[in-house]
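Fold Annotation — chain and its backbone

Fields — amino acid sequence, structure tokens

___
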Amino acid sequence: MPFYLYQLAYSGDAIKAMVADPSDREAAARKLVEALGGKLHHLFFSFGQYDVVCLIEGPDDMFMMAGAAAVGSAGTVSASATTKLMTSSEAMAALKKAGEVTGAYQPPHG
């Protein structure tokens, strides 16, 4: 199954609510991911542009979009980003394929 890196930034109101009444966001995320047929491998709180970083495994891109849309529809996220990940062996296979078709690409002339 594909892997995804999902990053999100909470809204100010969401952070205020979590400070006032902390709740286990990993348990909430795991419940959603599993309901969609995937697996939450890790959830980390982080510093910087995003407040949370998740490593998620799921059946396909529709799974990931549905999960991201469900989280976004709650209105507590101010920004998010999803990155589809590849294993090293998948990347090696893609690089091998690129080597097989390199001559088919004509770069721009400058």
